[in-house]
Recover the amino acids of this structure.
């Protein structure tokens, strides 16, 4: 039951991520990584930016290796998360893990298709700008936050957990 819930969250996150990226690329008439910008209001711009590195553009200088290396790393992480998800006994934790899996899959799809991750939400306040991001990034952050909440509020000791479920090996 929890596995199905987590996989549903993963599928929803990945599909919504790819759909929003498709819509943004279509809006700008692009077919992949490009550099476009449209002002939405005083605190949000819609952009097309290609992140060939990891979070916040770190390691962009290794662009020639990044798609394969970062996709392989994400695939390994997804396998570990799937194992954890299969052992989860909490619906909240299952959805959290699913969001991380779905976000990772959404970004890997971009890396394989475009050689980098398409980011399109660009928030700013005055001269302060947050790095551009996408729905996959949001799903990953929400999933990690939910996992932290679960671990802080729903924490069980090893003896209380039946057979060690919900605990990462």
């Amino acid at each position: 039951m929890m596995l199905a819930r987590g996989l549903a969250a993963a599928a929803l996150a990945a599909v919504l991520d790819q759909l929003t990226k498709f819509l943004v690329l279509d809006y700008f008439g692009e077919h992949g990584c490009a550099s476009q910008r449209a002002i939405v209001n005083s605190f949000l711009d819609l952009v097309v930016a290609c992140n060939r590195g990891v979070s916040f553009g770190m390691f962009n200088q290794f662009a020639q290796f990044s798609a394969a290396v970062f996709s392989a790393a994400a695939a390994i992480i997804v396998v570990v998360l799937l194992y954890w998800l299969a052992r989860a006994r909490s619906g909240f934790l299952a959805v959290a893990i699913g969001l991380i899996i779905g976000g990772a899959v959404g970004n890997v799809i971009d890396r394989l298709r475009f050689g980098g991750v398409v980011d399109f939400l660009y928030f700013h306040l005055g001269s302060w700008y947050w790095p551009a991001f996408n729905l996959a990034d949001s799903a990953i952050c929400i999933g990690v936050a939910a996992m932290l909440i679960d671990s802080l509020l729903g924490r069980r000791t090893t003896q209380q957990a039946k057979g060690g479920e919900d605990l990462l090996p």
